[in-house]
Amino acid sequence: QLVESGGGLVQAGGSLRLSCVASGRTFTSYAMGWFRQAPGKEREFVAVISWRPGSTTYADSVKGRFTISRDIAKNTLYLQMNSLKPEDTAVYYCAASRHNYSIRPAQYDYWGQGTQVTVSS
To answer: How many CB atoms lie within 10 A of CB 35?
Structure first.
């Protein structure tokens, strides 16, 4: 089970840190990703981190503003979001992939329920 938290309402230029706590199984060897979905749009890739230390990939739209990280000991995934823009408004989901380091949602095996992020202009 994956449970996200940390979403909320923030003004443009502000910051939020999302957390995703894993329970029920160990996701140590899984790639973990963040995705988002805005109303009327498809779910899109935001960032992914490998189970091996050091490998991360970001969507161009968030590169330089967002940072993905994980605390293996706490079984927790994070997304630090800085310089937020109104177009970042969406429901943010964390996901785990057992076999794939991927930007494609279909490659992920487990999903959280999502947390709403709203950025006002």
So the answer is: 25
Nearest to 42 by CA among 112, 115, 91, 6: 91
Between CA 17 and CA 24, with CA 23 as vertex, the angle to 5 degrees is: 165
**Tens of pLDDT along 3-49?**
999 999 999 999 999 999 998 888 888 999 999 999 999 999 999 99
Query: Rounded to an integer, what distance in angstroms lies between the CA atom of residue 81 and that of residue 7?
Result: 10
- State the chain's maximal CA–CA distance in angstroms: 40
Quick one: tokens of 91? 């429901």
Contact residues for 73 (Cβ-Cβ < 8 A; gap 6+): none
